[in-house]
Each structure stands twice: as C-alpha cells, then as structure tokens.
Design a protein that fits this description.
Elements: E1 3-8, H1 12-21, E2 27-32, H2 36-44, E3 50-52, H3 55-60, E4 64-67, H4 71-83, E5 90-94, H5 100-106, E6 114-121, E7 142-147, H6 153-163, E8 169-172, H7 175-204, H8 210-213, H9 216-222, H10 229-238, H11 240-263, H12 266-283, E9 295-301, H13 307-317, E10 324-329, E11 336-342, H14 345-357, E12 362-364
Parallel strand pairs: 1-2, 1-4, 2-3, 4-5, 5-6, 7-8
Antiparallel strand pairs: 6-7, 9-11, 9-12, 10-11
Helix pairs in contact: 4-5, 7-11
Bound molecules: nicotinamide-adenine-dinucleotide and prephenic acid.
Length: about 375
C-alpha cells in the first residue's frame, strides 16, 4: 500500500528522516519548510519526491505527517492539522526533544481522523539545517515513541514499520518520564557545556592565551555548546521546570564538590572521580547499552597532508567499513588522535591488527 508521507521541517532531523525513508517502496515523500532555500536544496538533491510551501493543502492529502520543526513550531503545526478539513485519516508524529507540550495538545485534538504518536530519535548533532542531514543519522539510536492514551497498538506498529529504515531501536515512554530522563542526559548537559564556555571566555580577559590551550578535554565536553541556539532555547523554555530542578541539584552537588576540594583528602577526591569514571565507562558498555556505542579504536597520526586519508584508504582496501571517524586533537606538527568507530567487534579487531601491521600506534577500546 502506498503512503504519502509529509515531512514538515526539513532540517537536520527532518532531512535525515527523509533520506533514510527515501528508498522505501510505496512511500511518497513530500517536504514542507518555510525556508525557500531549504526546499530548493531538498528538490535539487532529491531528498524528497516533492516539495511544498503550503502546509494546509499538503496535510489534507497526507497519510502520515512527521513534524520535524522546533518544539514550539511543531506544537502549532499540530494545532493547524486539527483545523484543516482532512481528506482521510492521518497518522501524525513529531521528533521534538521535549514531549509534554506536544502531547498536551495531542490529547485535546478535536478531529477523530488524527492519530498522534509522539516521537524523539535520540541522535543528532551540533550542526543544523538540511545540509547536515545524513541518511544513517539514526542507525542504532534509541527512538522514543509516546502514543496518546487512546492510541491503538496497530498504529504504533504502523509507525515503527514506516521508520524501520532508520535502523533505530524503538522504545515506548510516558512523556513526563521522557522529559525527566532527557533533561538529565541531554538538556542539562547542554546547559553546562554552554556555561563552561562562558567561564572560559571570562577567564580569557585575564589570560588571552586560554583558547590556544583548549585541547581535547575542553573541546570534547563543550562540543554541544556549538549547537543551534534557536533550537535549544526552545527546549530549555519548554522543559524549564525540569531544568530548574536539575540546576538546584547541580548547585548542591557543586557545593559539596567545593567542600571536597577545599577540605577533602586525596582519597576522597579519588573516590569521587573513580565513581564517576565507573558509571561513565558502564554507559559505554556494549552489554548495558544505555549509550549505544560503536567499537572504537584510537589511532595516533601525524599532522601531515593526507594522513587521515591514508588510514581510510587502508581500511577501504580491505573492505572494512567505518561507521564514524573523529579527529580528537590535532596540534601543529604534533601527533593527533583519530577515533575510528566500527559496527562490530570483528571489524574493530581486524582494523586494529591491520593498522598495527602498517606501523600505526593504536589503542583499542574494549
Ligand atoms: N539537533 C538534534 O540533535 C536533535 C535531535 C533529536 C531531535 N531534535 C528535534 O528535532 C527538531 C528539529 O531540529 P533540527 O536539529 O532538525 O533543527 P534544524 O534547525 O536543522 O531544522 C529545523 C527546520 O524547521 C524549519 N522550520 C522552522 N519553522 C518552521 C515552520 N513554521 N514550518 C516549517 N518548517 C519550519 C527550519 O527552516 C528548518 O529547516 C527539533 O524539535 C529538535 O528539538 C533535534
Ligand atoms: O549529538 C549531539 O550533538 C546532540 O546533542 C544530540 C542530542 C543529545 O544527545 O543530547 C540532542 C538533542 C536531542 O533531542 C537528541 C540528541
């Protein structure tokens, strides 16, 4: 059976979803966005089958609508669908990072032709816009679904079936639980990353050289501070109660930490760090899978033209496919580190052996 799927908001997430669904048999994709240049890009690159700047008309004839705009915009679009005279039944979902605002509207919909299932793929990037979209963005990611109270399981199954090409792992969560958990593991860390950047910027007034010293540690922990402020202000605003509660907890934790630094012994400081390390290492464990990780290898490389390409070529020549590659630090003339991620242990171990054979110094992440 053919389905007309309308993706409203063709940015990083909407564009990536469209790319991952684009080759599904029987799916006809229509892309809607308010930015003409985005629609033009989507059309030029065949990311969708058709583009439109007329949401009301497009939604009338759609079988499925994926709201992939900022939280507050998605909420308004859902209200709009409720006002439109629909041609037939429609399954509506969203991808927004906070679930309560949209679920509140979903529970008050007037039209019985709309079935709403909240959605949130737990994958993304600090980049935004359609140019950053990737077909494999959601591979292996947790994809949260929050059906409304009266939603039939068959509709959840229909949505999961549609989203199967994303290769994500679906879990059903209550919206409030979702918002509490994502505030801890996604939203709050973002706030802290931004605050660390502010702190560094303030200290730069005293030490102008500070940015030059920002190596792997600072860059790793603050990467997400480079995300789209317009998307994040929306998330913080929509989830402000949970954020405020977490800030209270954090301030208490920081007071204890200050006490520990001011008066604690080395053993206590060690214990604090060790407990955190233990928990963090456990998150990456393949068995526990709270953070779905790939199988990583760290490779030392030199800052020479073509050094990264040589590593990629070596693996490609041996038919080993990389899932991800990240440059952790490259300082002029000094060794940098590449993090290579593989989908399975076999690829990880084969690559490690190969790289060592060709003289690379590697470290494997067990
Ligand atoms: N970026 C992430 O890491 C991430 C991950 C998971 C979920 N999300 C959620 O996905 C949603 C989209 O985020 P993104 O990262 O793709 O942002 P983005 O900025 O890349 O894309 C948003 C798109 O929505 C469009 N848009 C804005 N107003 C619109 C309107 N009125 N009608 C139609 N389109 C409109 C923009 O032009 C843009 O193309 C957000 O709700 C965000 O919370 C983001
Ligand atoms: O990888 C990133 O840059 C992200 O911030 C992705 C991330 C997150 O993990 O916090 C951000 C927001 C989302 O709603 C889901 C995923």
């Amino acid at each position: 059976m053919s389905q007309k799927v309308l993706v409203a908001g063709l940015g990083l997430i909407g564009g990536s979803l469209a790319l991952s669904l684009k080759d599904t048999k029987g799916v006809y994709l229509i892309g809607y966005d308010t930015k003409p240049s985005t629609l033009e890009y989507a059309k030029m690159n065949a990311i969708v089958d058709e583009v439109t700047d007329d949401f009301r008309t497009a939604v009338k004839h759609a079988d499925v609508c994926i709201l992939a705009a900022p939280v507050s915009v998605a909420v308004e679009l859902l209200k709009t669908i409720d006002q439109v005279e629909l041609h037939d039944e429609i399954l509506v979902t969203d991808v927004t990072s906070v679930k309560k605002p949209i679920m509140d509207v979903a529970h008050q919909l007037q039209s019985d032709q709309i079935t709403f299932i909240g959605g949130h793929p737990m994958a993304g990037s600090h980049k935004h816009g359609i140019q950053a979209a990737k077909s494999h963005l959601f591979e292996n990611a947790i994809y949260v679904l929050s059906p409304t109270r009266h939603c039939h399981q068959a509709k959840v199954d229909q949505l999961e079936a549609l989203l199967t090409p994303t290769n994500s792992k679906f879990i059903v969560l209550d919206p409030d639980e979702h918002d509490e958990m994502t505030s801890v593991i996604s939203h709050f860390p973002h706030l802290i990353a931004s605050s660390l950047v502010h702190q560094a910027r303030n200290w730069q007034k005293k030490h102008a050289y500070i940015p030059k010293l920002a190596a792997g540690g600072f860059r790793d922990i603050t990467r997400i501070a480079s995300s789209n402020p317009s998307m994040w202000k929306d998330i913080f605003f929509q989830n402000k109660e949970k954020m405020s509660q977490l800030l209270t907890d954090w301030i208490d934790e920081m007071k204890d930490l200050k006490e520990l630094i001011d008066t604690g012994g080395q053993d206590q400081i060690y214990a604090y760090l060790d407990e955190a390390k233990d928990y963090r290492d456990g998150l990456d464990s393949k068995k526990k899978g709270a953070i779905l990780s790939y199988y990583d290898i760290y490779v030392d490389i030199f800052d020479q033209p073509g050094a990264i390409l040589k590593v990629i070529e070596l693996l490609a020549k041996h038919d080993i496919s990389l899932r991800n590659i990240e440059i952790l630090e490259i300082r002029e003339g000094i060794t940098g580190v590449l993090r290579l991620s593989f989908q399975d242990k076999n690829d990880q171990q084969m690559s490690d052996a190969l790289l060592q054979k060709y003289g690379y110094s590697t470290m494997i992440d067990e």
